[in-house]
């Protein structure tokens, strides 16, 4: 049976998602500025 998930999993998930959110925000902001 697999061991229980360590609390590190949530931190790792945030570490993976944060750059994606930052990149998405930068692209969205750039598109919004260029579209305006």
What this model shows, in words?
With 36 residues, the protein is mainly α. Helices cover 78% and strands 0% of the residues. The mean pLDDT is 86. The protein contains one helix and no strands. GO terms for molecular function: transferase activity. This is Glycosyl transferase family 51. Keywords: Transferase.
Low-confidence stretches: none
- Rg from Cα: 16 Å
N-to-C SSE series? H
Helix content: over 70%
Coarse shape: rod-shaped
Termini gap: 55 Å
Fold blueprint:
Blueprint: H1 8-35
GO molecular function: transferase activity
Protein name: Glycosyl transferase family 51
Organism: Cystobacter ferrugineus
In short:
The chain has 36 residues and is mostly helical. The protein has one helix spanning 8-35.
Summarize this structure as a short list of keywords or feature phrases.
36 residues, mainly alpha, 1 helix, rod-shaped
